[in-house]
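Reopening this ticket.

The earlier resolution said the output was attached, but the attachment link was broken on my side. Pasting everything inline this time so it's all in one place.
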Amino acid sequence: MSMSSPLLISQQMLSLLGTRTFIYHQDRVPQESAVVVISNHRSFMDAPLLMAALDRTIRFACHHYMGQVPVLREFVTRMGCFPLDEPDHRQRSFFHQATQLLQSRQVVGIFPEGAEPMVQLTNPSEMGEFQRGFAHLALRAPVRDLAILPVAIAPQTEFSTSPFPLKLLSWVDPSEPLFNQSGWHPMVLYRRVNVAIGHPIWLTDAQRQRYSGKHAKTVVTDLTTQCQAEIQTLLHDCLK
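Inline output:
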């Protein structure tokens, strides 16, 4: 493993922060195939935490503004992330980059709740509605032996701080309406955290055929609902 690999950087970051991680069902992680990893999302620590838990480098799609700030851009690039484009080109660019990564049998990470949980502090047991981009990607990518892997991040102890106002981010990325509001950007840091890995969902030829036909919306909805329910169950089991 390279000393500058995203996986090693993630492990070192968690060690420096003193985060104690408890991993459940690590044997469920596919080791050779392309994987789309999805998870609930409340902290900047989620990406390195998932990499350390799965023991695989994960290429995360991250918010557009992270590619606009010089120091932050360097960091997320070293972490293997690819910042999303501006709204006009975002969807096409995301599918193009993510598909190329999956075709080379890499792991792509997506947080289906989007950016909202990052700017509005929520309870660890809560999840927002999942956006469906990850399901479209998995069904559309011309990759055999592709799995979606749902993962739950369930902090036992954490603390939060508010280091800068949200308006500051609107100067960097005025295209994001979430930044155009009063208040401060929360930053959640985990002290003790459970990571529960769900059952991989392997994409089938039948699903892809239905996606290409008149039942495409139903296939996407069913897959999104299945993944969100799996993560919600894992989260509930870890926090009860």
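Reporter confirms the inline version is readable. The chain has nine helices and eight strands. Residues 216-239 form the longest helix (24 residues).
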